[in-house]
Amino acid sequence: MARKARIKDDYGIFHIRQTGGEERNLFERDEDRLYFIDILKRTQSNFQFRLYAYCVLSPNEYQLVLDVNGSDLSKIMKSINISYAMYARCDGRLFKDRYKSQMLADRDEMMEKVREIHENASTSSHSEWNSFCLYDTASPLRLDWVTKLDTGEQPAEGYTCIDCLRTLDEAKMRLDAICQKTQQVKSDLLKDKRFRNQLISDFRRQSTLSLKELGELFGGLSESTVSKILKRQG
After folding, report:
1. How far apart, in whole angstroms, are the C-alpha atoms of residue 185 and residue 155?
2. From 81-90, 118-127, 129-138, 143-152, the region with the lowest mean pLDDT
């Protein structure tokens, strides 16, 4: 049966639900949740969407309520999911299927959905790591409070890069795999600068590559350009 076409509206408000596959849970530890929310923060900075709620209560599901705010929902979700899949390192399919999106008709419906998610999270657990569902229906969420991971030469204190990409060849293979998953040739993928910049930030966190090697990986960028991108990504 053919897939149902998504409703697209560059200024719509959507409830997003993404579930994990059978290989591993989306969130196996607190650090996974923190990293996912850091990805949300960086993606929000890149695409300027308005976030009204997020919930990573379930070990194998996340939910968002967001206003696309003139951007492209599919690009936002691609950026979030590919960045997290790169971090999670699942041998099989990390996500069960494509994300589910429901366009909310108006602000009242948005507030009701946010309230529903919040109440479900609050009654299920009192642990802050298992009840990530913050909201303010009067104004969008900014995720600036989330602890930043350092973008300098050394990893942030307390942050361990597990199973890092340690050579440029390994990183090239990973980038090729991302291109294959998104069904894009590398040159086309790198033309999308916002997505490219987030990938640079993700590869920095998940590899021991130098700034020079990152520049080579992403189309021959200079070390200073890579450094500026990393600082902007935060």
Report:
1. 31
2. 143-152
Nearest to 233 by CA among 78, 40, 98: 40
- For residue 57, how many other CB atoms are within 10 A of its CB? 21
- Model pTM above 0.85: no
Which amino acid, one-letter code, is at 61?
E
Angle between helices 73-88 and 168-182 (to 10 degrees): 140
Cβ count within 10 A of residue 115: 13
| 9-20 confidence digits (pLDDT tens) | 567 899 999 999
Virtual CA dihedral for 20, 61, 4, 108, nearest 10 degrees?
A: -170
- Enumerate residues 6+ apart whose C-beta is below 8 A from 69: 11, 47, 48, 49, 50
Task: Give the residue carrying structure tokens 């033309």.
Answer: 191
Q: What average pLDDT does range 115-123 have in this prediction?
A: 71
Three-state SS annotation for 62-120: EEEEEECCCCCHHHHHHHHHHHHHHHHCCCCCCECCCCEEEEECCHHHHHHHHHHHHHH
Adjacent-strand bridge partners of 64: 16, 54
- Can you tell me whether residue 165 is helix, strand or coil? strand
182/41: higher pLDDT: 41
Going by the DSSP 8-state scheme, the letter that residue 130 receives in this structure is: G
The region of weakest confidence among 18-22, 59-63, 186-190 is: 186-190
Residue 130 is which amino acid? N
- Taking the C-alpha atoms of residue 57 and residue 176, their distance in angstroms, rounded to an integer, is 33
What CA–CA distance (Å, rounded) separates 16 from 63? Answer: 5
